[in-house]
Amino acid sequence: MTNNPELDVLVIGTGAGGAPLLARLAAAGLRVLALEAGVRHRPAEMPTDEVAQAGLFWMDERLSAGKDPVGFGRNNSGRGVGGSTLHYTAYTPRAQPDDFELLKEFGQGVDWPLSYADLEPYYDEVEQFLGVSGPSEYPWGPPRQRPYPHPALPLNGAALLMEQAAQQSGIRTSAAANAALSRPQEQEGYGLRPACSNRGFCQAGCSTGAKASLDVTYLALAEARGATIWEGAQVTKLLMKGGRVSGAEFVRGGKTQTLHARQVVLAAGAIETPRLLLLSGVGNSSEQVGRNFMAHVGVQVWGLVDDDLRPYKGIPGGLISEDFHRIPGLVGGYLLQSLGVMPVTYATQYARGTGKWGAALSEHLSQYNHVAGINVLGECLPYAGNFLELSSELDERGLPKPLIHFSFGENEHRMAKHAETVMRDLWAKIGAREVWALPRAAHTIGTARMGHDPSSNVVDAFGRSHDTPGLWICDNSTFPSSLSVNPGLTQMALSLRTADALIAELKA
Amino acid sequence: MSAQERAAVIAALNGPAVTAPTRATLLERLDARYERQFLSETEFARLRAVAVRLVPHDPAEMDLSGLIDQRLHQNLSDGWRYADTPADGPAYQGLLAALPSNFETLSGDEQDAAIHELQASQPHPFEDLLAELTEGFMAHPLTQYRFGYAGFMDAPGWPRVGPNELEAREIAYGESGNDQ
Questions:
Q1: Which UniProt keywords apply (chain B) (predicted)?
Q2: Is ipTM beyond 0.90?
Q3: Number of domains in chain A
């Protein structure tokens, strides 16, 4: 298929940005092909072991600078057919309408070039298609057009303890929305997906297909509708012809190859997308590529309880509260969620977060079965000092490694402090001991922002490059603000919206 | 590891509650030993001495230092590093070189004092080494047995997930299980 003039759309990346779009384009009868740097990870081949599952993550070295350097690798990145959804917790809250209008509300940050109403039908479509499990009544945000297709998943130990503590504190909670099945579901293009077995290893890959990673949902549909996915294809450069993006150069099986298409969609995530644009010298007349990098305020609070909780069981994030969506004196807010955790993740976080070693470390870890956690996901504003650039250090392909600068601003520091106080108070209510807090940032957002003004944004409201024809960007790099919710569901909704715009353009 | 512990771990891993990919992974890890290839003999001896103070373990039971040496030899990354820190190999060599020259022969308390100084003077490389040793330790089947962790026995699923709702295979497995 090399240099095939018949290819309509070339998609780079098969995660939450690339996959729904690929399915939509294929269903519209377009000839589409996706390049994925990682390989296929079939559910039944996944061990219940975090170390063995390192291959789900982007392990090429990234350099982290700033006052609050962001960890990558086994956090914040995915590699494989399905991208980061292979290891997401399948936590799928919708953003609220005011999340898209921070500037209007607070005079800080920027507004999105689209509204909640623009995304609402897509949110609904994604929830129904993935088979989201959730509560019948959700206390926050606008009412949904249709209820969640499946009842909520069972609450595990940490979730039940958080529920109990929140009741005493007058904080409302709800079972969360999770894209993991509480009942079996027939999935078009894939087959029957079973109900969740409560294995709790969502972040190390689901071994049954109950979790809606994109390999068993949108990508299966895409392939059933004629899309092609080439795995193990590492894109190294975007190609230009006659002033437009015309394809990509990539390394596959040790060989450098090229592919051309009428339109190219870059869906490689908020690190690799700007890296490729900068490497290729494309799409950056605004000089905003790599700018406005954001990562959610993600502080976690952990404690030990007498109950035998077995934190490896159940959906890790089962209970939510959006009561802190707005906090007087702060810009934006955060959501609270209960946390289950796998053993190695907990142990390494504890070692890094507390700096403890020796007997103090092993004694604490020996009580792993009694660990309960809560965390937040909070708004992060864009700052001039938070950006991605190409490092002078080269990777094994001879390409510059990405260097990411990140420091929390005043608002993020105050939000983290507020959240830590709330969570410590909750854990005090249930008598947790050895309570400790892990300061943390989660998710990679920004770096190729969408907006109406070409001078200060990289793409328009549909993901179309402002300055380079033939190029679209569809991943969380385009988020103008971080939103105070997990990005997965919103990203998939945006992906379908971009697909509709692409189809309209190609058929015009 | 006592013969009894080893037998219990192997019996659990070979049991019907463990899926084939999980079984293969954990059985291989149980007996994994590595030949030193990256660090010098002197550096490696010191790493072993530091490692048992940082994450108490018996190197004859689990080869955590060898695991690190092997990774450095293979030049495998965990996906990121602090920009102010050299690459993992030189960073760890720098940590080891910063310890007193007679570190291995010091008393446990003296070693701990030297490690505290190292933690203060080179926080980022120290954190990386500590996390890597902790990962190797917690991922080892023997540690998991001793801590009563049974999450790998997941083939039948976990129908009940609330506090103290344990399945028989969880209660039976490991020292914490035996205590209750």
A1: Plasmid
A2: yes
A3: 1
Q: Which of B21, B55, B164 sits opposite A362 (nearest CB)?
A: B55
Helix (H/G/I), strand (E/B), else coil: A41: coil
In a domain? residue A18: yes
Residues A222, A188: Cα–Cα separation, whole Å: 10
Q: How far apart are CA B56 and CA A360, in angstroms?
A: 10
Concatenated DSSP letters of A116-169: HHHHHHHHHHHHHHHT-EE-SS-SSSSPPSS--SEEPPPP-HHHHHHHHHHHHH
Per-residue burial over B88-122, b if 16 or more Cβ lie within 10 Å, else e, is: beebbbebbeebeeebeebeeeebeebbeebbeeb
Tell me if A314 and B161 make a contact (CB, 8 A cut-off): yes
Domain span including residue A126: 2-43+55-506
pLDDT per residue, tens digit, chain A (508 aa), is 444 557 999 999 999 999 999 999 999 999 999 999 999 999 999 999 999 999 999 999 999 999 999 999 988 889 999 999 999 999 999 999 999 999 999 999 999 999 999 999 999 999 999 999 999 999 999 999 999 999 999 999 999 999 999 999 999 999 999 999 999 999 999 999 999 999 999 999 999 999 999 999 999 999 999 999 999 999 999 999 999 999 999 999 999 999 999 999 999 999 999 999 999 999 999 999 999 999 999 999 999 999 999 999 999 999 999 999 999 999 999 999 999 999 999 999 999 999 999 999 999 999 999 999 999 999 999 999 999 999 999 999 999 999 999 999 999 999 999 999 999 999 999 999 999 999 999 999 999 999 999 999 999 999 999 999 999 999 999 999 999 999 999 999 999 999 999 999 998 8
Q: Does residue A49 lie in a domain region?
A: no
Domain count, chain B: 1
Q: How far apart are CA A453 and CA A448, in angstroms?
A: 13
Residue B101 lies in a domain: yes
Question: Which phi and psi angles does A488 have, rounded to 5°?
Answer: -55, -55
Cα–Cα distance, A229 to A35 (Å, whole number): 6
Chain B partners within 8 Å of A72 (Cβ): 79-80
Q: How far apart are CA B164 and CA A166, in angstroms?
A: 21
Structural domain of B124: 32-147
Q: Distance (Å, rounded) from C-alpha A213 to C-alpha A178?
A: 11
Residue A50 included in any domain: no
On whether A235 is known to bind a ligand per the annotation, the reply is yes
Q: What is the pTM of this model?
A: 0.97
At A173, which CATH number? 3.50.50.60
B79 contact A CB<8A: yes
Do B176 and A61 count as a contact with CB atoms less than 8 A apart? no
Is B89 inside a domain boundary? yes
Q: Can you tell me the distance from the alpha carbon of A373 to that of A163, in angstroms, rounded to the nearest whole number?
A: 12
